[in-house]
Amino acid sequence: MSVQLPTIRAHHLADLYDDPARALMWDVRALDAADALTDDWAQHHHASLQVAGFYPSLHLNLADNLRRLGSFDAAAEHLAAARERASALPDGDYGALIRGAIDGVGESVDRRSTERRPSAPGPAS
Questions:
Q1: Helix or strand (DSSP H, E) at 110
Q2: I want to staple 29 with a disulfide (CB 3.0 to 4.6 A). Which of 10, 11, 94, 104 is the partner?
Q3: 5-10 contacts, C-beta under 8 A, 24 or more apart
Q4: Is pLDDT at 115 greater than 70 in this prediction?
């Protein structure tokens, strides 16, 4: 099995769970799998991809799940990592979506909110 499958599957499997603890488990797996990727691997799938561009979203998802579990300090650490790596995001809709979500989760952390954000990925209701 290639590294691609665990990374992508774990990232998407996390979105299937409304329970933040279960989603967190898959998001940790996705981050760990991403650490094994190379730009050569990414560019094999699409010439414009760079592994660095995956990390803002991965850290964002970890931050959101940790926040929902009430672990605000750990969530803030992952938000900081997402912000540090946000320059790797592409211009356009996707980059704007992730940057906006980082800000939204940050506001929720500041408020110490554990509520699910309406725009958060998750299972269809």
A1: helix 93-110
A2: 10
A3: 6/30, 6/33, 7/33, 7/34, 7/36, 7/37, 7/54
A4: yes
**Which residue type does 90 have?**
P
| Spatial separation of the C-alpha atoms in residues 30 and 119, rounded to whole Å | 21
Question: What totals of helices (H) and strands (E) does the chain contain, helices first?
Answer: 6, 0
- For residue 56, the model assigns a pLDDT of 95
Task: For the chain, give every domain's residue range.
Answer: 4-110
In this prediction the pTM is: 0.84
pLDDT confidence of 118, banded at 50, 70, 90?
confident
Question: Which tokens go with 38?
Answer: 């190379």
